[in-house]
Specification:
6-stranded antiparallel barrel
Length: about 200
């Protein structure tokens, strides 16, 4: 799925990193547990375990068919889409066989964590906070969401990856720029919290 991002700058605010796990009323841990999300037979995205055998990822990656989640050991677990929000581009997956006891990410300054659990070699820079109008090229619909503009080595498959700041999830990556090298966009985690309740 191709996204065209049109941006409108909003007031610059201090980035308040919020723990995704906190939205599920679980005690905060050292950092998020990362999984790979496969749909349509492809390793298509990254996901973050939010507790209760639930995983949050990007909606555009899961499609309508079967979804599989691979844990930190590479074991495949069937998943079911519990809910999705196309405007936020989020999907919540139930993964009954998942044991979310994988190694948590110990967050330093802003890191982007890939689906194999590794962080990129350099810290991600949050350039600014934006009010984005995101156009889905397939359906031509426009969604509005609060995003973080990132600078860093963002690759295909990093959609759904968390931006981790001090052990807490600050954002969920959903797109990278086609026009600007090393620029990508993440949904602000504060916007994701109500979706996870």
């Amino acid at each position: 799925m191709t996204w065209t991002v049109r941006l409108a700058a909003c007031g610059v605010a201090v980035l308040a990193a919020s723990a995704v796990g906190r939205a599920t009323a679980e005690p905060p841990r050292a950092g998020p547990v990362i999984v790979a999300v496969e749909a349509r037979g492809l390793q298509s995205a990254t996901g973050v375990v939010v507790g209760g055998r639930r995983v949050v990822t990007v909606a555009h990656a899961v499609g309508d068919g079967p979804v599989v989640v691979r844990d930190s050991r590479g074991a495949a677990h069937p998943a079911r889409v519990v809910r999705r929000d196309e405007e936020l581009d989020l999907a919540l997956l139930a993964v009954p066989a998942l044991h979310d006891d994988g190694p948590p990410v110990l967050g330093g300054p802003r890191l982007l964590v890939r689906r194999d659990g590794t962080a990129i070699a350099e810290p991600v820079v949050v350039r600014r906070r934006l009010d984005a109008r995101v156009r889905d090229a397939a359906t031509d619909t426009v969604a509005r969401r609060p995003v973080l503009e990132l600078s860093g080595d963002i690759r295909p498959g990093d959609s759904g990856a968390p931006v981790v700041d001090g052990g807490r999830v600050a954002g969920i990556v959903f797109a990278r720029s086609r026009e600007r090298e090393r620029v990508a966009y993440a949904l602000d985690a504060e916007a994701a919290a109500p979706f996870l309740r």
